[in-house]
Amino acid sequence: MSNFVSVEELVELRASGGPIRVIDVRWRLDRPDGHADYLAGHIPGAVFVPLHTELATHGEPSDGRHPLPTTATLQEAARRWGVRSGDTVVAYDDAKGLAAARAWWLLRQAGVKIRVLDGGLSAWGAAGLPLETDDVHPEPGDVELEEIGAEAISIDEAAAFPAGGVLLDVRAADRYRGEHEPLDPVAGHIPGARNVPMAAHLDVDGKILDTHTLQATFAAVGVTNGTPVAAYCGSGVTAAHTALVLDEIGIEAKVFPGSWSQWSNTPGRPVALGDQPG
Predict the structure, then answer these.
(1) Fewer Cβ within 10 Å of end Cβ, the chain: N or C?
(2) CB-based contacts of 123: which residues, under 8 Å, 6+ apart?
(3) Domain boundaries, the chain
(4) For residues 92 and 120, is the Cβ–Cβ distance under 8 A?
(5) CATH code, residues 4-126
(6) How does DSSP assign the chain, residue by residue?
(7) What architecture (CATH level 2) is domain 155-263?
(8) How far, in Å, CA of 246 to CA of 33, rounded?
(9) Which residues belong to any copy of the Rhodanese domain (predicted)?
C-alpha cells in the first residue's frame, strides 16, 4: 500500500465508516503554530496537531530545534487525537507534506498505520470539498505505541555516515552551498553530504512525482536499492519527508533529527561550503 492517499481515496475511506483518524499538522518555519489557520478551515473531523509540542520536544541549542519526543509523550498525544488500536491515521498540512511527513515518520516507527494526503489541504480545496471551522476534540483513544528512535541517527553517526553510505542534505541548494543561512549560526553543510532538495520530489501542485522520476533523482547521487542512506535538513522535519519519499520507492532511510540546527550549534564540527560534498 502506498504511503500516500489521494483526496478521492480519503473521501471513500471516510464514507466507508472504517477506523480512520485525520490529523491536521499545520506548521511552517515562519508560522510554527498553525492553530489559527486550522480554525479558519480544516478537513471535517480533523484534529489539530501542534508539531512543536507533540511531534518534537525542546532542549539546548546543541540538541537541535526539534528533538524527538519521548514515546510516552507521543502516545499521550496520539490518544488525545483519538487514535485507537487498529486505526489508520491520515496526516495532512498546507506546506507540501513537510509537517505531515514528520507525523508519518514518528508514528510509523511506533507501529501505527499512517498515510499522508497527497497534495495536502490544497488538493482537498481544489476538489471543491468542504472545510469546517470547529476545534475537534474527540474521545481519547487507547493506542499503545512501540518505542520510537530506531530510525534516527546521532550527530556522531551523521558525521561518519558518508564513509559507508549516502548522507543527503535536503535543504535548498543555497543553504547547502553556504550562501544563505536564515536560522542557524553557521552556513554550509556536513562534509560528505550530497544535496537533493525536497522540492525535487514534488510537482507544481505539491504531489509526489512518479516512481521512475524519483528513482532517477536519487540514483544521480548514488542512492539505489541496498544503499545505506540517511537524510538531514535544518531541524529534522523536511528530512522526514525525504524518508517518506524514499520508503515509497522501496528504499529505507534513516533521519538525523538534530540536523543542521544541532550540527551548527555544536562547537568543533567541521563545515563544508560550495556545491560539492567536500
Answers:
(1) N
(2) 6, 7, 117, 205, 206, 207
(3) 4-126, 155-263
(4) yes
(5) 3.40.250.10
(6) --SEE-HHHHHHHHHHT-SEEEEE---BTTBS--HHHHHH-B-TTPEE--HHHHS-----GGG-SSPPPPHHHHHHHHHHTT--TTPEEEEE-SSTTHHHHHHHHHHHHTT-EEEEETTHHHHHHHTT---B-S---PPP----PPPP-TTB--HHHHHHGGGTSEEEE-S-HHHHHTS--SSSSS-SB-TT-EE--GGGGB-TTSPBPPHHHHHHHHHTTT--TT--EEEE-SSSSHHHHHHHHHHHTT---EE-TTHHHHHTTSTT---B-SSS--
(7) 3-Layer(aba) Sandwich (3.40)
(8) 28
(9) 16-133, 161-272
Query: Are both 4-126 and 155-263 of the same fold?
Result: yes
Q: What percent of the chain has pLDDT over 90?
A: 95
How far apart (Å, rounded) are the C-alpha atoms in residues 189 and 82? 40
Q: For residues 258 and 235, what is the distance between their CA atoms, to the nearest angstrom? A: 6
Task: Report the candidate in 177, 194, 192, 179 with the shortest Cα–Cα distance to residue 278.
Answer: 192
Give the residue numbers marked as catalytic. 233
Give the strand pairing for 20-24 and 194-195.
Answer: unpaired
Reading the block at residue 197, the C-alpha cell is 532538495
58 residue type, one letter: H
pLDDT in tens, 15-45: 988 899 999 999 988 888 999 999 999 999 9
Give the pLDDT score at 29. Answer: 83
Q: What's the half-sphere exposure (Cβ side, CA atoms, 13 Å) at 11?
A: 11
Q: Which residues 6+ apart lie within 8 Å of 194 measured at CB? A: 166, 167, 168, 169, 221, 222, 277
